[in-house]
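Progress note, sequence design subtask.
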């Protein structure tokens, strides 16, 4: 799916800076998702942080599909892109994997304190 180049999309939104697009992407992924994870999960060790992480990933995916994709001119869920339905499917899988990893790392951090 060469038409799904998030960095190039961010670059066009941010005035053409490739470095700033990468920084923004990492900031959203680490700080943004981390804060949302902490707010939702808290420090209760009885919670399933892996499932919570997957939920955070799904929420991020949904926000991307209904807000970011249309702002970039790709329509809801990116369906106006050449890859069509593969865009939301692939990005959902990527966000869920990221969310699970986030949940696992968060669980280790909570256990360490």
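Output:
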């Amino acid at each position: 799916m060469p038409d799904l180049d998030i960095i190039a999309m961010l670059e066009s939104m941010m005035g053409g800076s490739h470095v700033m697009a990468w920084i923004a992407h990492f900031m959203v992924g680490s700080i943004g998702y981390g804060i949302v994870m902490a707010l939702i999960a808290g420090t209760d060790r009885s919670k399933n942080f892996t499932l919570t992480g997957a939920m955070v990933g799904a929420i991020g995916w949904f926000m991307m599909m209904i807000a970011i994709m249309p702002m970039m001119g790709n329509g809801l869920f990116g369906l106006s892109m050449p890859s069509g339905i593969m865009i939301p499917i692939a990005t959902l899988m990527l966000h869920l994997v990221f969310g699970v990893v986030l949940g696992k790392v968060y669980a280790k951090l909570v256990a360490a304190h």
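The mean pLDDT is 94. Work on this subtask will continue into the next period as scheduled.
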